[in-house]
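Two records follow; treat each independently.
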Amino acid sequence: MTSTPHTSDAAHTSDVPDTTDAPDTSDASATAGTAGTTGSPDLRAQLDSLTTEAFRPELAEIDRLSTLEIATLMNGEDAGVPGAVARQLPVIAAAIDAVAARMGRGGRLVYAGAGTAGRLGVLDASECPPTFNTDPAQVVGLIAGGPPAMVTSVEGAEDSAELARADLDALVLTAEDAVVGVSASGRTPYAIGAVEHARRLGALTIGLACNPGSALAAAADHGIEIVVGPELITGSTRLKAGTAQKLVLNMLSTITMIRLGKTYGNLMVDVRASNEKLRARSRRIVALATGATDEEIERALAGSGGEVKDAILSILAGVDAPTAARLLAENRGHLREALAAARG
């Protein structure tokens, strides 16, 4: 699949002055290797074909409305996003099951995107270690242009499929890994390049876009297209499209972690009590899971070295800490399965 140039996901942040959230021409000729121009008829036609870039004449005088009226409009726009996600739930679920299978065999989850989409991937990846006690290398976020692109625009980074290939090669990607290309337009060369390269290497690939019939979705094993429609501010894909992407990434990581045994019911049990805040949270989690007394909880946590899963298993199964650790190891870290094994 050859990437089609488009710019709706250009690097953007609300805190750093730049103009990349608006339609521009930075990747108008990325695949041809020449510079785009603002007046390019081809680029204008491409923008006109994308729902995320569509102009809404009924909002042409939005700047004349009161602040409350604009806030009400935005809130109404956002209310439609969950419904758009809901229409893709079967596709999302299939992608999650495929990711969980790979990660269960030791693979990694890698997000790759540019601008807002890239930042959302980095954000989701960075939240996994504190939430699920994952190794930082287990869920990785790649953004076109590297860390500097998290806070400012890196010119031309999103235009380069070659940069995506280099970033993935630096991770030494394997066939057990899963790569998620994220792009509101579904045409960003960096995201498509990442998916195409990962697929050639045998990795699982997912394309997350917000336009129908996108090149990104077509390039991936699992194409997820959350069509949220034109934005309140023309081409500002950090709005509804960004919200939709965040919701889907939440699902991808959270449900995958549930499948990997990182929770017990809806409790975050795969945490270690390494500071006072986490110790307090750990005691509460053990209490909710077991109904044990404070003394029993403190004793179990002390015996497990602060490992919440081990402490819960020790209490519920009536086993010592070493036995709890062994049972969890034998059951791939799944507390419910380890508890069933302990009870015979």
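The next record belongs to a different protein.
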Amino acid sequence: MTRTLLRKGLAITAAGLLAIISILPISCKVKAAPDKDSETGSEATSEDADTGNTITDDTDTEGDASSEAATQEDVSSENETEAGTDTAFDPDGTYHAALGLQTATKLWIYRFGYYAENPGGSYCPYGEENWSKLTRNYNDEVDTEETEDKVVVPGDFTDVELKGNGTYTVKLENADFQKETTLSQLQIATDLPLDAEIQISDIQVTINGIDIVHFDEAVFEEEEPYLTGGKVVLLFNHWRDGLKAKLAELGCTENAPNGWELLDGREEESISVTFTVSGFNYDNEEAVEPEATEDVSDLGKIIGADSSDNPAKENESGGISVVAAVGGVFVLIAVVITGIVIRKRK
């Protein structure tokens, strides 16, 4: 009898552990990754083909992607200038900031926003006609006419002038992400000199009206090929392990082969990043913090999960109770084994 009851107790405990394991994978405000054969297209290729700014499509082979990455490095070396590094920071001056991003589901839509001619071999560099636009390469599965030019994607960017200390917002509105749901890069590119004693803090990333993640302090780009135009603040980047570790600490763990499922892949999408700048000799009275957006804290609404998927579950017989806060931050486990009375046989 004793052994039988002990076995039952261990079985209940094991069931509790399985319940815990089933809860823990829930991460931050990112969506569940689509299946490889879903309507959003096949899985993006060669997730480690480059250290960033990868432009490819699902027709590339791994070798082709690696070759392209090598070519980009060569281009960046040839075009690297000292812009952003040899100009002294003027604390009474005016500088600029732009939103940069790249998707990575299939079409690799991008706008990097660097303030230099060709940092990192990026496409549509500063000064070209499409620098301030969303663009992508031709894709024979979705485009009817082949073209050597970049395909311009609908979307309106708002860049800002950094005119003193204050709070600023760079944003993208009315974007048509054309079934792209994975975001591989998101950043704020500036023309601030690299040695500028400027602090960028209190950074809020909002996508489609939902607050995704908040940084107390900026995480700056450190890869030299991408710094020829000035300081760059990294927000999401599949190729930066340190940033990914920081995001994981904030609850945003990658959940797609090349990044994070944060987009809907539809028309009229928006991305905004609000941040505070200090270190100038003067304040910008017009750069004030915008009104707070609607608080959307229910992760179930964001990832499309029914709240019934993660209810507090209780074993009616008094066995195991599991209460989990959606988001994986707080988990309370109560394991109660009742009805087990071990009696010593006489």
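Discussion point: The two ends are 13 Å apart (CA to CA). How would you locate this feature using only the token line?
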